């Protein structure tokens, strides 16, 4: 659910009561993996996660279409888990109806994380397993590039 990429890093938003957010509060070291298997390419980002400001969360939340179902899904995840798909769909209908004629408020448990990259590996598959792999490592003077073994 990556929502933004800037010179600072990679941003996503989530339920702060989720397992993912709980694990990030205990261990800020993370990796992101972006595979493109049909192209034999992948990118792996190694970095640290930090919470983004409430102002940034609100700005993102307000940029989304008002009736976008995901607006309600944040509320759904707070009310779960659900024993059946039917129970999930029923709760979704209730929440959608509740906000049918008004704004969906920013849930208090909704937040975001910025992943600040320290290393980024680019991998391109190669014939005979002679892959091209490059590791970009962040340093005070910029990004250092190292060719890795296949």
Q: Provide a count of the helices.
A: 4
Percent range for β-strand residues: 35-45%
The count of DSSP E runs of length 2 or more, i.e. the number of strands, is: 7
Taking the sheet with the most strands, its summary is: 7 strands, antiparallel
pLDDT < 50 stretches: none
Please specify the SSE layout and strand pairing.
Blueprint lengths: L1 E4 L4 E6 L3 H8 L2 E8 L4 E11 L2 H10 L5 H11 L5 H14 L11 E15 L7 E8 L2 E7 L2
Antiparallel strand pairs: 1-2, 2-5, 3-4, 4-5, 5-6, 6-7
Summarize the structure.
By secondary structure, the protein is α+β, with helices and mostly antiparallel strands. The protein has four helices and seven strands; from the N terminus they run ββαββαααβββ.
Commentary on this structure:
The protein is of the alpha+beta class and 150 residues long. The protein has two domains: 2-66 and 103-148, Electron Transport, Fmn-binding Protein, Chain A (Pnp Oxidase, Chain A, Roll); 67-102, no CATH class. It has four helices and seven strands, in the order E-E-H-E-E-H-H-H-E-E-E. It has helices spanning 19-26, 54-63, 69-79, 85-98; strands at 2-5, 10-15, 29-36, 41-51, 110-124, 132-139, 142-148. Strands 1, 2, 3, 4, 5, 6 and 7 form a seven-stranded antiparallel sheet that branches. The longest helix has 14 residues, at 85-98. The model has no long low-confidence stretch (mean pLDDT 89).
């Amino acid at each position: 659910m990556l929502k933004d990429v800037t010179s600072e890093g990679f941003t996503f938003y989530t339920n702060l009561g989720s397992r993912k957010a709980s694990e990030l509060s205990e261990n800020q070291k993370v990796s992101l993996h972006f595979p493109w298997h049909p192209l034999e390419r992948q990118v792996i980002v190694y970095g640290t996660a930090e919470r983004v400001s409430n102002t940034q969360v609100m700005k993102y939340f307000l940029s989304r279409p008002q009736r976008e179902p995901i607006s309600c899904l944040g509320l759904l995840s707070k009310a779960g888990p659900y024993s059946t798909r039917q129970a999930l769909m029923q709760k979704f209908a209730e929440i959608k109806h509740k906000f049918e004629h008004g704004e969906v408020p920013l849930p208090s448990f909704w937040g975001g994380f910025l992943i600040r990259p320290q290393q980024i590996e680019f991998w391109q598959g190669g014939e005979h397993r002679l892959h091209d792999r490059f590791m970009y490592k962040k340093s005070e003077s910029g990004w250092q590039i190292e060719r890795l073994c296949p």
